[in-house]
Design goal:
Structural class: alpha+beta
Radius of gyration: 17 Å
Largest sheet: 5 strands, antiparallel
Order of helices and strands: HHHHHHHEEEHEEH
């Protein structure tokens, strides 16, 4: 399983925004973006000349890192989304949101997307009663996501639900029963990802 093993806090500082890659820590004063709100590195405080390409690249990198994908995974997701009917940018965000690892995170069953990805990869979750260990698995409306009976991660999941303030409006969560239902496809207004998807489309259209 390919993963980005680099420092998570440097990624947030590079993008200049909290990407919530370290779960609960991102909500405390220990967050690196709160302490040092400039990019990492020797020239982090220097003024950077902005260009159209740079804005598009940063937006793509922000989205890729927000969902925890490597470059090839992200581009493949975009290519599939661009072939579907509708706006490519919205299709891309919808495809990213309906990945199983993201759904587990959105339901409040994990403290971060990285933790959700690991829980899925280790086979702790089921979709419609079937064990699924592929983080990129695409859920669809009416799918039911549940914690596998007898899972050794039950306490970890319950601890995560205790910290969950809200669940995405296109999902329904039962935190007592550790189950969640996909109610419908997410609309753009229901996706709080802090990116401008049109810039990503422009970048890949060149």
């Amino acid at each position: 399983m390919a993963r980005d093993l680099g420092p998570k806090c440097r990624v947030c500082r590079r993008e200049g925004i909290k990407l919530f890659l370290k779960g609960e820590r991102c909500l405390t004063e220990k967050c690196a973006v709160e302490r040092r709100s400039y990019p990492p590195g020797e020239h982090g405080r220097d003024r950077i000349k902005q260009s159209e390409y740079l804005l598009q690249l940063r937006e793509k990198q922000k989205a890729r890192r927000y969902y925890g994908l490597l470059e090839r995974q992200f581009r493949t997701t975009y290519e599939k989304a661009s072939r579907r009917q509708g706006a490519p940018g919205e299709n891309l965000l919808r495809a990213l949101e309906t990945r199983l690892d993201n759904v587990v995170y959105r339901l409040g069953f994990a403290g971060s997307r990285a933790q959700a990805r690991q829980l899925v990869r280790h086979g702790h979750f089921q979709v419609n009663g079937r064990r699924v260990n592929i983080p990129s698995y695409q859920v669809t409306p009416d799918d039911v996501v549940t914690l596998r009976t007898g899972s050794t991660a039950e306490q970890i999941v319950r601890d995560a639900t205790d910290l969950t303030a809200a669940v995405a409006p296109w999902l329904q969560a039962d935190h007592d029963g550790l189950a969640g239902t996909v109610l419908k496809w997410p609309e753009r207004s229901e996706i709080d990802t802090p990116v401008s998807e049109q810039l990503i489309v422009e970048l890949y259209s060149k």
